[in-house]
Amino acid sequence: MPRPPVRSAPAPTRCGAPDAGDGDGEERAIAVDPGVWLWHVTYERTRARPLRDALIEDYTPYSHSLARRAFHHGEPLDDLRQVALVALIGALERFECERSIPFVGFATPTIIGALKRHHRDNDWALRVPRRAHAVATSLARAEARLDARIAGRTATQAELAAELGLAPSDLADAQAALRGRITQSLDAPAARGPDLPIDLAVADEGFHQAETRVDLPDALDALTPDDRRVLLQYYFEGRSQREVGEALHMSQMHVSRLLSSAIRRLRSRMDVVDGPVPGRPAGRARRAGDG
User: Strand runs (DSSP E) across the chain, as ranges?
Assistant: First the structure.
């Protein structure tokens, strides 16, 4: 079947699609073009691809006008046009001429609903419950109404909850949802000031200590029995180097050399950077006689 000609007249008079206007909410009365209605009747019976393409091209300006009405600053208009066009095609596939209603009257709620879902799913950096999302979108209007009635002070949480007809807990959920609407990139320059006292990414010593505790038993097994006894008595039993030497029948200087040697071997097996021999943990002070 040859493709029907697409007339060059403006969309409202060509296909009966009302002009969505510039956001004032006023729409002209829907006038059904008999020629376009015949396309709908024929397409419903034949599902001919040329007719489908002609109808889509005919109604595309109207879907774009609805997308412009749903446009928010900072959002790509092309994305909204794509959403509106996909919804238009879906409505065209479901449209039944026997209902005797203009196609525009059938398709408009579908397109507007798709645009609203797009905003709900993509305007927020985090997904929040639908209830919290709905309350959050009306929160700013409620605050404006209260500010107009209450001069000289900020509305309390209780007043705001009463204005919205919500429980305080539901209001708190909505306010928390609003904070999740916009997030900051971790690659952005770090802010400095009272609102961000620490960097988002910091080194956590807990991870290193956990790895050390896992590696330590194998490293200890590689030491000689004398090394393990020296470490046990000095670090875990809290003895001084002199007392360890007396218990093991060796000089204090030899105990000191054994401690240094054992620590270096432990660090080597555990891939720890070498450094001074560590002292005892807090609470195990050195006694007289330690070197």
Answer: none
| Cβ atoms < 10 Å from Cβ of 283 | 6
Q: What is the dihedral of CA 211, 213, 219, 225, to 10 degrees?
A: 170
The gap from C-alpha 23 to its chain's centroid, in whole angstroms, comes to 30
CB 27 within 8 A of CB 20: yes
The CATH code that applies to domain 130-179 is 1.10.10
Would you give the distance in Å from CA 266 to the centre of its chain? 44
In terms of CATH architecture, what is 205-269?
Orthogonal Bundle (1.10)
What is the distance between the alpha carbons of residues 150 and 152, in angstroms, rounded to a whole number? 7
pTM attached to this predicted model = 0.42
Tens digit of each residue's pLDDT (9 = 90 or more) over 24-48: 434 444 567 888 889 999 999 999 9
162-183 pLDDT tens trace: 888 888 888 888 787 777 666 6
